[in-house]
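tl;dr need the bound structure. longer version: we got a ligand (D-mannonic acid) that a collaborator sent over and nobodys looked at where it sits. i said id run it. heres the input, straight from their email, havent touched it
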Amino acid sequence: MRLSRDTQEQLPADVVRPGYDVAATRTGIVHLGIGAFHRAHQAVYTDDAMAMAGGDWRIIGVSLRSDTVRDQLAPQDGLYTVTQRSADAPQTRLIGAIAQVIVAPEEPEAVITALADPQTRIVTLTVTEKGYYQTAEGGLDIDHQAIAGELAGGKPVTIYGFLARALQRRRAADAGGVTLLSCDNLSENGQRLRALLLDFLERNDSGLAQWTADHCSFPSSMVDRIVPATTDADLESLTGRIGMQDKGAVFTEPFTQWVIEDRFAAGRPAWEQAGAQMVADVRPFETAKLRMLNGAHSALAYIGLLNGHDYVHQAVNDPAIRPLIERLLLEEAAPTIDAAEGQDLEAYAADLLARFENPALNHRLIQIAMDGSQKIPQRWLETLRHHQVEGRRCPAILRALAAWIIHVRGARHQVDDPMADQLAALWQRHGTDGIAAALFGEEGLFAQRFIADDDTIDLLRQHVAKDSQGG
Ligand code: CS2
């Protein structure tokens, strides 16, 4: 038996059900990039907000690439469960917030129609760092073939192509602006999305860029919940517990946080009633999250893999790694953050370590290791730069950076990164001795984000030489 509208009544009584009339509630949000993270985070807040305060805010999910999530959820009428895992017994709830999933490459027109629908008042995004198509300098990568194709009038494939067509229609039909809410791990994600999108629009239709600037809003937001990729074993054990199959199930930790700038163009769900923090300025929270949580995560990933671990909880409990992570959190990342009132970075670091230790989560290091070239600028390089200006080094981050350099050589693990080929070519050309300078020297690949001084390059070179032995 498979979970669906017709079978949901047969779920065990301890599976918490949506607290609103799902079938009678209309959509108000289109989400671009519907993966496990969205289903375990924003969809849950939206489900709670509709239960607490009502509103037609169900979600049309869009998958920009694969049909996997649609095939998981369509036979289930959009229903799926979220299971929290910790040392305590797992807790499962049913989510009704997702109304439909559209696979963009199959039905591009349906995506544009949904985005342009006057009923759509918010567009949320989790398209990962690489989905923004930024250059090393942070501008729009107009040379990327996906972007170049759209700018030349080709069919939409990226967020920009779809949004441009939809905004054009909204303007023509006087359908009003929308809020474009980035939920990706980028610094100042809202402002960044705004700058990149306006740049894209400006190139073909400056009137549309102006209309968008006038009618849409781009709040920044900090999202946080650790969501490991679902495995077959997870699904099997869930079936055993709930007595039916849920192919769209997601598994996550109890912790969840969402901090959002309260600037909405056309209303919003009562997310604050579901526990979201509505603030005027998200920066202190976002910087702490990126440099501390994500910074430590990436360090655990590359150093952990190098030391033969598979999971986050193993790496963080390794006595050879743990002190580096503590140092990164408390002595390297935390001092670079201008804390907001009431924000306690020491307590935050302690909570992070406890979350990483969660033995029930089974969060794979290789999942975090993905797309490092897109992640390390905001996770590590900004911290390095901050300290460099004051003449200080960051030994823990430099160890992590060396582990990343070794990782992208691809000798031990497959490198899943949009720059994998470029990084492999640099390794080929420069070898163990020259790779650190080729990446972080004055003429290095990352020079726009961070240039290491000679001593730092030397230290990186020594770590790379020493740590790659046996690899
Ligand atoms: C992780 C994040 O995979 C990664 O890069 O660092 O997905 C992390 O789990 C989330 O940002 C937690 O909110």
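gonna send this back to them w/ a short note. The two ends are 47 Å apart (CA to CA).
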